[in-house]
Every structure is written in C-alpha cells, then in structure tokens.
C-alpha cells in the first residue's frame, strides 16, 4: 500500500532514496555542513565560483563580507539566563542555542525560552546553509522522549522555562521520518511541564501525510516548518526539499485547526520582489477551511539575515538593512500573517514566547467578536 504524500507528484522510490544515501556516505569524511552540489540535475542558478566544493579541494570563493554594525548581539547575562545556564551545565543538557552559537541565546534564556534538537546530530540531507553534519545516522534512540521530557522538567521547575522550541535533523532513512519519536516527545513534555508552551520545528517527512498527522495528533501549541528561502533558490539552498511540498505541509496544519508558522532567511541570493511574492504565495497556498469555518492561513512568519556558518557553505550575498526588514514586516502583516518577526538577528525561536502570546490575544479577540 502506497503512503499518502503532501505533493501531487509521486514519491521517490526506495531505490532512489538508497542511492542518495550512498552518495552521502561516499562524500565522507568531510567537514560539518551541507553540500549544495548534491543535486545532479541542471541548477536554475550557477554558484560554482562562489562555493567551496569539499569533494575537490580548494575552489574560488567570494571573500567574506564584513558584518555591519547592526549585526551585534547583546552579551548574555541576567538572573534568568544564569539560572538556566547553571541547570543546563550541571545536568549536561544539550540545547541548539549553545551548539549553534545563536546570537540571541542570552536574551532568549533570560526570557525563559530555549531550543533543543531531537533524533540525533546527523542529518540525512545536505542543505547549503546548515552546519549540522550529514550522513546516515547510526541508531535511533527510543528512550529519547523520556530523557527530553525529564530535561525540560528540570529547566521548567528550576529556571522558569516557559516556552520550548523542539527541532530535529531529517531522518529520511526511517519509515516514518522519526514522526513517532516526535509525537512521544511532545506528549511526554506536555505531561512533565503542564504550564509550558510547546513549539515544534519539523522537517517535511518527505511528504508522508501519516507521519505529519502523528505530530498534529500530539497537539503541540505551534507547528513550525521553515521554507528557508524563495522558490528559485531551492536547488542551492534546500536541494532535497520541494517548495510546493512545504507549502502543502503548512496548509494541512491549518486545515487541522493548528497554529502554523514558517520562516525564511534573506541575504542568501534572493531579490526583494521574490520575498514579497513568497509572502503572497504562502498565504494563498496555506489557506484552508478551518474546523470553525474561518478562511484561515499561515499565522506566524520569521525573517532573519543569513550568516554563513563556514567556508563550506553558501556565501552571504548581501547584508539586508534594518529598514528593509521593517518593510518586509509591514508586507507580511499586509499579506495576512498575524505575527511577523523581521530583523537581522531574528531566528525561528527569537521571541517565540512573545509570538505565542500575541497570537493568543488576537485569536481571543477574534473569538469574542465571533460570539458577539
């Protein structure tokens, strides 16, 4: 029996998937990060002279652009940050905030917001912007949901953690893409921390509708799936993903009556007009008849500056000025997003608790007007 997929296109065969994994393994050993040249079909744009090809040694590459003054984060500090840091360090907990060197870690931790990653540290995909190592993961830790829930309980009770963002690597070698681990992690975390809001940043599960439904049925407060970039840039930025498949995932989240969130990077090669076009495409593509009859669409959008993790990744094409981020925010709100976070240092989890609070206020007011 074939599985239902998001996309109208047929799913890739198992043989093709195995071949893709074999190609990934053949590339190792190599530095952490993605290989934008993974696809063998003709790219829509050429980045040959701009990317360090880690299979062939040195290649021409643009010099790193000096960061502008507005790309400077605050030094971490404050009692909230200190309490959470002590618990994380003493119990040897792991957060994406630390491992990714997020510039907003101090501010987020002080607010009681943190991000963790599940399903291991090895991704089966090789995206051109991401510094997570790629390959075939060795094992699947079935006890991970229990340990994650216990870690969150320590942070919730000891450091007033009020909002958690859970993300993961892609696990395309698994039949369900890791969806069962996702669902159990959400359920156990809710039981361990009943006063904490849970946001998940999920992969596309290769368009497997049943896998997505497992996450939806676990009922996290927010389901996030990042588009990352405009459609034209997908061959270089997200070579193993499909723009339409990601839009359909977000539409299904809205059709289930859930809160949907997405995010993009700018400064990676897109044009301003393509960003504006994307805003409209997301709103039109995710609009669905919600259970209460509302003509609803994707709720939350984040827009941030792309920063090149290593020389092995796609180069920064431009530094986007704060004024342009403000213009993107205005355009996003005008397009129909209810909450938009747009700025040079914005990441998926930036002000995630505030986004949830603002959205709750908007929905409460809408419900009040509906009853009136």
Written description of the protein model:
The chain is an alpha/beta fold and about 375 residues long. Helices cover about 40% and strands about 10% of the residues. It has helices at about 15-25, 80-90, 95-100, 105-110, 145-160, 180-190, 210-215, 235, 245-255, 270-285, 320-335, 350-370; strands spanning about 115-120, 120-125, 135, 165-170, 195-200, 220-225, 260-265, 290, 295, 300-305, 340. The strands form 3 sheets. It has a 7-stranded parallel β-sheet, with helices on both faces. A hairpin with a 5-residue loop joins strand 8 (about 290) and strand 9. Helix 2 packs across helix 4 (about 105-110) and helix 2 runs antiparallel to helix 5 (about 145-160). It is globular, with a radius of gyration of 20 Å. It starts with 13 loop residues before the first helix and ends with a helix.
